[in-house]
Design a protein that fits this description.
GO terms for molecular function: amino acid binding; ornithine carbamoyltransferase activity. The chain has about 300 residues and is α/β, with parallel strands linked by helices. The chain has twelve helices and ten strands. Helix 6 crosses helix 7.
């Protein structure tokens, strides 16, 4: 296993045993990254992804710098910019649009680059999420599964031999995506609910992204795929993993569900933040050349 100076740019960077190692180490309480020189590049408007990291770094009094605008990538040579920040920082966290820029920074900076969130991938979120799904064999996805976090989660779950049942309108199916990552028959995509008598987990992300303004047409296609009391009647749901903002106007999760009754089943936003930090902490520990000597 070689984590030393290993970037985390997308969901294909980690092999199965590396992913399992991170998840195992995450369960232990280390705080390792306070000695590191950290830079956050925030190229895109972000509420939770960047702010959750900043809040934790501030809480532990960890020094960091943040580049919070786009002019560096528009007016400056990206290669020169990468070399400059590489001299100053050990770790670079990137939150932006372009995966190509991410790769250039990783190649020329000499620092370890970690993708907080890009248009195509959301590796930190997906790893922290699957740590809550690791003991469940069957996982259901409801609705539109084309967001970056859902795709990332599916890619990583595919490495762990989970059975995925995707309950989604056909308009959102992307066969080429699944052919690329699945070499077995452990994934089912269907417009009709498939019922299992085994305990399962329910996973969903927001149906509407932060920047979307016109979404009524989209909601009309997804309304039959919401989480409601009927679903609880048919499925033995052991855990619900749902993004908290999805409660908007009770369209995503039906108002007939008593949130307090199912409180023990839900994993909320606060736990997501804690899990993300533990994943990052585990990654930092594994990234050290002296890891196997110290621990």
């Amino acid at each position: 296993m070689n984590f030393y100076n290993k970037h985390l740019l997308n969901d294909f960077n980690l092999k199965k045993y590396e992913l399992l190692t991170i998840l195992e180490l995450k369960r232990k309480n280390f705080l390792f990254f306070f000695k590191e020189k950290i830079c956050i590049i925030n190229e895109k408007q972000s509420l939770r992804t960047v702010n959750s990291l900043i809040n934790v770094l501030n809480f532990f009094n960890i020094k960091f710098s943040i580049i919070n605008n786009k002019h560096n990538f528009k007016k400056e040579n990206i290669k020169d910019f990468s070399r400059t920040i590489g001299i100053l920082y050990n770790y670079i966290f990137y939150r932006g649009n372009n995966d190509i820029i991410l790769k250039i920074i990783a190649k020329f900076s000499g620092s370890v680059v970690i993708n907080l969130l890009s248009n195509n991938f959301h590796p930190i979120q997906s790893i922290s999420d699957i740590s809550n799904l690791i003991n469940q064999k069957i996982i259901y996805f409801f609705g539109n599964f084309n967001s970056n976090v859902i795709k990332s989660t599916i890619i990583n779950l595919s490495k762990l031999d989970k059975i995925l049942i995707i309950f989604s309108p056909k308009i959102y199916w992307k066969p080429n995506f699944f052919k690329k990552i699945f070499s077995n028959n452990r994934i089912i995509i269907t417009e009709k609910l498939i019922i299992t008598n085994k305990k399962c987990s329910f996973y969903n992300d927001t149906w509407v992204s932060m920047n979307e303004t016109i979404f009524e047409k989209k909601l009309s296609k997804l309304i039959n795929y919401q989480l409601n009391r009927k679903i609880f009647h048919y499925l033995k749901i052991n855990k619900i993993f749902h993004c908290l903002p999805s409660y908007n106007n009770n369209k995503f999760i039906s108002s007939e569900i008593d949130n307090f009754s199912f409180e023990s089943k839900f994993t909320f936003f606060e736990k997501q933040i804690i899990d993300k930090i533990r994943v990052l902490n585990s990654y930092f520990i594994l990234n050290k050349k002296s890891f196997f000597k110290v621990f």
